[in-house]
Structures are given as structure tokens and as C-alpha cells.
């Protein structure tokens, strides 16, 4: 670089005032090796070059390669779509197939405020992820006196019609359907007064009446008594009508029938959901597996209801004392169909224990805790406090287990409507598989015996290991741990729910 001094040719100018102005000097730094700036080809030059034969051929080659590549990708995508496995269409399901149902047979036992109390406990019920309540019976009748039967009138001991309407409205806002139990003589010797045909007309009127009030379904116990009458087709016809809204359900229950007889009744009655009281917990595991297979093979699982408790059967914990209640909770939640539980089953209440204990447990434990700190010297009171604390802790664990299974049931396709495949059965144990198309598979294993069992399980897509999703034995089968599937070891009175991915 060098400095160049620029000087004006005419450095002095004579101003009109007679004074002289001297122009200054400017120094500019100029690069010594400054070259000519490249401005690229002009438009005319570009057009001239682009018109040459070489560039024309190059453009054609690139254009052909582009279209061949595009067509190749399109053809590849079509091949992938055609050869990819098709997803199975989701079967038609109704609201009662989407999760468990919850029976409240005695609304006054459930809450001291009757129907109003049930409404107050809807938040609690909603936490259980239930899809519907089976309520009552709550109508007016004196035991064994058919002349006093009023199926469209609510017994004042339980509440009023306005309270039921309020319950319906709030339950519907929470996505919970209400099914009304209209079993006529629910407090008498015979549920149908030994003559179901004599009350059939009043039953039909009541079905129409309550459905028009917004009830989502009707439940009838001892279904075989009314289903064998000539009036049954007209009762059933009420529920076949649709007005474009969600389907209204006709449900029923029966006890004491064999699997074959229950299957025949389901075919004959064509109810939307039938509770059979099967499988019988007193039966060996091999027989329970047979009963499940009979009912599953002959009917759509959308019509199969599984319940081991109820007004006539008693609580689940009392009916299955030989095994932890969580074992049978797992069984009912994972069978192909709808699990139905009675109030109190979710915390393991036994016969003689009042349902109100569910609401009093926490406050009672807090009160006893405070008192125990003051009277710690009392040995008896300390033992009482320990017993209450352990009971509360145990029931909380049972309830949490129930919620976890209910959540899985409601969102996993394999558990909602997947195939049922029996893998193992013995006098004291049972294992089966639930699978749906390309969804995650679920394996259920239960052992209600007094000894440990090793199950040798075989199926075409079983992996070497599977993930624990729920377990009654968290010490040996912790949730989210991996366990061997080919030789599955299960302790006495334990159950486990495993899952593994679609292998395709």
C-alpha cells in the first residue's frame, strides 16, 4: 500500500472580495496490487453459453434423472404401503365395554345421604376409572307383596326422583353412565314373586319411563326367570329402538348356572351384558379355564360380564378368602369382557364391614394418631392404633392396585377387545394371553395355591423376557422389571401381569 497525494490543478482561487482561497491536499491509500473487479458473465454471454450442445444435453440428463428418482420413490412408497400389514378394524364397542362397572346395591349403606350421597361421591368413583354405575334397586315395594310394587316410584328412604335426575346430570358430565336395577322383589324370597309374567307389563312401563328420564340402561337380576316368559321379546324390543344417541343397555345377572346353561341363556335373552357369577373361585384352575373358554368361544366378549360379588353373592373379599383380593381383581380386569365390581371391592371390604368405612378410614386414622401420641403409655391403645394404621395402609395399597388395573383396562387395546389365548392351567394356577393385532401383548399368570409354581409357557411370539406391569409380589416381581417368560416362577397366592411388544 502507498499514500498518493492528490492536489488540485488550480490550488488558488481569487475571491470577489479580493482575498485568496487555497485549496487543501487529500491523501488517499491505494492498494499497490489492486486488480480489476470480476463482475461475472453478462446476460447475453450466459444465454450464448447455455445454448451450446453440451449444456443442453446436461440439462436434459438432469431432468430425466429427477423424474426417474421421483417415480422410483413413488413406486417404493406404494410397495411399502401394499406390503405393510393391515391394521385390524376396531370392533364395535359400547360404553359398557370401555371399562369396569361399579355396583351400588344399597345406596344408604354406600352413603348416609342416599342418592344425594352417591352424587357427592362421584369424584371418588371417577378416580376408579369406571364407565358406569349399576344403581339400586331403589323403587318402592314391600317384600313378597306384588300389589305394593311401584317400579316408577323411588323409595323415600333412598331419596327422590329429583335427586336421581341431579345424579344423572352430574354423572353424565363426568362421563359416567347410570344403570338402574329394576329387579321387582329385591328384598323378598323370589326376585320375581314366583311369577315373572305377572309383573312384565309394569316392568315394560318402568323401562320406558326411566329411559325417558335419561337413565342409560336397565339391570335385572335372576334374568332366567323373566327371559323365559312370552313377554320378554317386547321388553327387549324397548332397547332395540335408537334415537341417534348412545345405546341404552339391557343387562342382567344369573347365579348357580353352569357355563353351558349360562351360554344358552345369553343366546336366548340377547341381553347386552350378562353377569354369570363365573368362574367359581371354589373350582380348580383347570375347571375355571374351561368355563372361561366356553363363554368366550360361544359369544362376543362385548356381552360377557365378569363379577364375583353382588347383592346375592356378597363381597369379593368374602367370597375369595383363600387368596388376596388383588389376585381376583387382576383376573376380572384381564378377562375378555367387562369387569363388574361391587362397592367396597376396590379396597377389599369383607362381609360385615360397612361401606362407610371407606370414607372414615383416613379421618379415623388421623384422630387415632393424635390420641395415640397423648396416650402412648396405653398398651391397648397403641395396639389399636397399629391395627388401624396397618388396615389403612393395606386398603390404600389394594385401592391403588385397583386403579392401576382399571387404567390399563381402559387404554390398552389388547385388554379391551384382544383375543384370549389359554397358556396354562392346573388345579391351583392359571395363565393366559391377551393380544390384539400389532398392539402390546399382555400375559396374565395367577397362583392361588399354597405352594410356588413354575409355569412352562409356549406361544409363537412369546419373547424370552417380558416387563412386569402389575404384581401382587413386588419383592420378587417388581413393577417395570424384566422376568423370564419361558419358565415363569410364581409364589403362593400371587399374580402378575406382564407385557411385551408386538414382535413384527
TrEMBL record:
Keywords tagged on the record: Membrane, Transmembrane, Transmembrane helix
Record-linked Gene3D superfamilies: Glycosidases (3.20.20.80), Golgi alpha-mannosidase II (2.60.40.1180)
Ranges that cross the membrane: 60-82
Domain Glycosyl hydrolase family 13 catalytic stretches: 112-377
Signal peptide (UniProt feature, chain positions): none
InterPro entries reported for this sequence: GH, GH13_cat_dom, Glyco_hydro_b, SLC3A2, SLC3A2_N
Any single biological process term in GO: carbohydrate metabolic process
Entry's Gene Ontology molecular function annotations: aromatic amino acid transmembrane transporter activity; L-alanine transmembrane transporter activity; L-leucine transmembrane transporter activity
GO cellular component: apical plasma membrane; basolateral plasma membrane
Protein name: 4F2 cell-surface antigen heavy chain-like
Gene: LOC107738018
Amino acid at each position: 500500500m502507498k499514500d498518493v497525494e492528490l492536489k488540485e490543478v488550480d490550488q488558488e482561487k481569487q475571491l470577489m472580495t479580493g482575498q485568496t482561497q487555497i485549496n487543501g491536499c487529500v491523501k488517499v491509500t491505494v492498494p499497490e496490487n489492486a486488480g480489476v473487479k470480476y463482475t461475472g458473465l453478462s446476460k447475453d454471454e450466459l444465454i450464448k453459453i447455455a445454448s451450446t450442445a453440451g449444456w443442453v444435453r446436461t440439462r436434459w440428463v438432469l431432468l430425466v434423472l429427477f423424474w426417474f428418482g421421483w417415480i422410483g420413490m413413488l413406486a417404493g412408497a406404494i410397495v411399502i404401503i401394499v406390503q405393510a400389514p393391515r391394521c385390524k378394524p376396531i370392533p364395535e364397542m359400547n360404553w359398557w365395554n370401555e371399562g369396569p362397572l361399579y355396583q351400588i346395591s344399597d345406596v344408604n349403606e354406600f352413603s348416609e345421604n342416599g342418592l344425594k350421597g352417591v352424587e357427592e361421591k362421584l369424584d371418588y368413583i371417577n378416580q376408579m376409572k369406571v364407565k358406569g354405575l349399576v344403581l339400586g334397586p331403589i323403587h318402592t315395594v314391600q317384600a313378597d307383596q306384588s300389589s305394593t310394587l311401584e317400579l316408577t316410584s323411588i323409595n323415600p328412604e333412598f331419596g327422590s326422583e329429583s335427586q336421581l335426575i341431579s345424579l344423572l346430570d352430574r354423572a353424565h358430565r363426568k362421563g359416567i353412565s347410570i344403570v338402574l336395577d329394576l329387579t321387582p322383589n329385591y328384598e323378598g324370597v323370589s326376585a320375581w314373586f314366583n311369577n315373572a309374567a305377572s309383573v312384565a307389563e309394569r316392568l315394560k312401563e318402568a323401562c320406558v319411563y326411566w329411559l325417558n328420564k335419561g337413565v342409560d340402561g336397565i339391570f335385572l337380576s335372576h334374568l332366567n326367570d323373566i327371559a323365559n316368559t312370552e313377554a320378554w321379546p317386547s321388553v327387549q324390543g324397548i332397547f332395540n329402538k335408537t334415537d341417534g344417541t348412545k345405546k341404552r343397555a339391557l343387562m342382567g345377572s344369573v347365579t348357580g348356572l353352569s357355563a353351558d346353561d349360562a351360554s344358552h341363556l345369553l343366546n336366548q335373552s340377547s341381553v347386552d351384558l350378562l353377569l354369570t357369577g363365573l368362574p367359581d373361585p371354589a373350582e380348580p384352575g383347570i375347571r375355571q379355564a374351561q368355563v372361561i373358554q366356553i363363554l368366550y368361544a360361544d359369544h362376543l366378549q362385548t356381552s360377557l360380564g365378569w363379577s364375583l360379588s353382588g347383592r346375592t353373592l356378597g363381597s369379593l373379599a368374602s367370597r375369595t378368602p383363600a387368596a388376596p383380593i388383588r389376585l381376583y381383581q387382576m383376573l376380572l380386569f384381564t378377562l375378555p369382557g367387562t369387569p363388574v365390581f361391587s362397592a367396597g371391592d376396590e379396597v377389599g371390604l369383607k362381609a360385615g364391614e360397612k361401606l362407610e368405612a371407606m370414607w372414615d378410614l383416613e379421618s379415623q386414622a388421623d384422630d387415632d394418631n393424635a390420641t395415640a401420641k397423648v396416650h402412648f403409655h396405653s398398651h391397648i391403645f397403641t395396639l389399636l392404633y397399629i391395627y388401624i394404621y396397618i388396615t389403612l395402609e393395606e386398603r390404600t395399597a389394594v385401592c391403588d392396585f385397583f386403579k392401576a388395573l382399571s387404567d390399563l383396562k381402559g387404554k390398552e387395546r389388547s385388554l379391551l377387545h384382544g383375543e384370549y389365548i389359554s397358556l396354562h392351567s392346573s388345579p391351583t394356577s392359571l395363565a393366559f394371553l391377551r393380544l390384539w393385532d400389532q398392539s402390546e401383548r399382555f400375559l396374565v399368570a395367577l397362583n392361588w395355591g399354597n405352594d410356588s409354581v413354575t409355569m412352562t409357557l409356549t406361544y409363537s411370539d412369546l419373547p424370552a423376557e417380558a416387563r412386569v406391569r402389575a404384581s401382587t409380589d413386588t419383592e420378587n416381581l417388581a413393577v417395570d422389571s424384566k422376568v423370564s417368560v419361558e419358565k415363569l416362577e410364581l409364589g403362593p397366592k400371587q399374580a402378575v401381569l406382564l407385557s411385551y411388544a408386538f414382535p413384527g
